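fold-stage: in
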Amino acid sequence: MRPYITKLIAILLVVGAFFVAKKIISNKKKNKPQTTVNIPTAFVVKAENEIIHITIDETGSLSAKYKVDLFSEVQGVMHSTNKEFKAGISFKKGEVLVKIKSDDYYANLQAQKSVFQNLIASILPDIKLDYPNVYNKWDQYLKGVDINKSIPSLPEVSSDKEKLFLTGKNIYTTYYKTKNLEIIYQKYTLTAPFNGILTEALVTPGSLVRNGQKLGEYINPSEYELELAISKALINTIKIGKEVTIILPEDASQTWKGSVSRINGKVNTATQTVQVFVTVHGNNLKEGMYMQATIAGQEKLNAIEISRNLLIDENKMYAVNSDSLLQLITVNIIHKTKSTVIVQGVKDGENLLYKPIPGAYSGMKVTLKK
């Protein structure tokens, strides 16, 4: 009996060991992870081309319409004048801006005038004998020559013989040499070309001024120009004389009215914009002020307005095709504002991406949400 019990126990142990081993092996098997694909949601809106009224808002800085850079064409020591030569000082037309010491040059000029006067006097006897009919003309001219005044223009000649006679006596050479000295002498004194104000002063009385040296900057503070960069797509809507509203960005209550005065005939190759200059008058305007200009444009047909952050590479944006895949479409940008762009080239009914998708790429599978 005992041997049967022993065999039974052995069989039970073997069977139990088999099931335990099977259990252990099954526990060691790892479940394969299931692959999950996250399909992003695309918020879209159907494109509807419509009539859009475009208002051009651009910014730029003011610059004086009449501005003169003051340079010296002669050399010498700067003299003091009735008004200080400093930035902020106003001058009236004709008032002396800069005066340079010219005593030596003035003496040479007077000597040259005297030489010319003596030369005219020396030819009068010959003229009286050979050309008696023009003697009174030259006699009156000599009486009108004053070395303390500008040399008067030469009388008109009556014949070729008279002209040849004057040429042989060096009348013309001496006259133009004297006039040239007069012109240079005038350059020792710079006068205001118009009513204005000094905005820059680079020299002071007593300093040595050299030929070609910049002395300062002078502007007319009553009239300014605002330079704007307008898209070439809109430049045809802007004409000379078109009214422009100008606003101070930090204080919208301060406004001025201007008008388009100039339009450049060249397109900037880098920005595809055209320079437009707006003339503006008014109080409280200063050189270099940063201003905002508003120009009423025109109505654009078959255009839509989208957010600027939807643009890809400046002229593309994403749309969703019938297979729920992202695709890049090329658009024609008509106008840009601070937050939106007006574009053409989009078909009606096309599903346009309304919100950017991080990591988006052409061909990405998306779930549409309108």
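fold-stage: in (second)
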Amino acid sequence: MIGKERIIKLLKSVVTESKADTTEILFMGHDSGVTSYANSRIHQNVTESDSRVVFRVSIGKKVGTVSTNILEKDALLKSLGSAIEVARHSRPNRYFKGIAGKSKIKAIKTYFESTAKVTPAARAGIVGKICTAASRKGLIASGAFSTSKTEIAFVNSRGSALYQPLTSAAVNIVISSDNSSGYAQAVSRRVEKIDFGSLTKKAVEKCLVSKNPIVMEPGKYDVLLEPMAVANLLEWLAFIGLGATSYHEKTSFLSGKLNKKVMAPSVTLYDDGLDGSGVAFPFDFEGVPKNRVYFVKKGLGGRPVYDLQTAAKNKTKSTGHGMIFGGSSGPTPLNIFMQPGKTPFTKVIGQIERGILVTRFHYINGLLDTPRALMTGMTRDGTFLIEHGRVVSGLKNLRFTESVTRAFSNIQAISRETDLCDTWWSDIGCISVPALHIKDFNFSGKTEF
């Protein structure tokens, strides 16, 4: 960790020497470690320390972007010069309306020494306990436990100078037998918030209960999606339908649906980078403060997230969802929440006469029909038959093909409890979701495993 004073001072000294009309510099540095395990043994223990500096400059409406991982002033000035050359040889971007000014950013604690001080030996000790618990039951453990400390800084030629230190811990646990598996996961900025023992017990129990799974024929069933399964769908929904690009290109399920019914009245879905109950991060990669954005409010369609360019193009304001300069994803929500219900999970499952419980999905393809949010994918690591409010057997995995908007319009109950679910962007956000009881969820195929 370099620290706020040193990194801001260095970036400011580079900005002051820029000959461009506007200059922005984004710094991302991290120290991370991951302990991976398979066959109930640690097979990989990796530590990585790296940094990345990204420049974006403008000359008139011509914009250039360059990045480097050399954090020395001479190298930074060279990269700045390269960015200026790129801008000079670029076509004008008519939607470029300038850069963010100085903003007041909400103070949020996102760095915890308890996580920053986790050693490889400490990670190995926790993984060892997971593997031992599995072995005692004649099962096999695999997965990964990672910790990281990160610092992100942003400086621009309009006087913005932002800095945020972060820590993150994430674990995933897969427990397997010869014909079954179980899964559990957690993510938090504070490692002590993760109950590794309970997670291991949960994954072990899922594996044991799902042994000798039976076959369920494809069809429409009541389904209980646990939080990770819900998060798997929302991760894709964020990619295909919650950003301004897809919204205004009319490929999003929200396009043309403002204040119109898109899901059940019980559904409220939003993004909030300032909510400390998730994995908060207060500003975006363009130096704009994050704002809460409602995608769905009590079942009615809301608005997407914007960065500076999509906001200028559509004559509105950035919502603080700009991504790293030079990327192609467009504005993206990284702190997604689904509002929980009032029913305890035990009562949610208790009201299901016959249905299927899904722990999580994988191999999802969300590009089948994006205006309908039509997706397909497979169940994984714990699929169960529910009868008369109880799990009675494991099931062989099933393929689903379903419109998320149709499914979320058929929600019968939402659990009171929520989980924070890990995603590919876990250092700067996560998905916080409850479990969902959905009627007539469509399973289109079955497997032999």
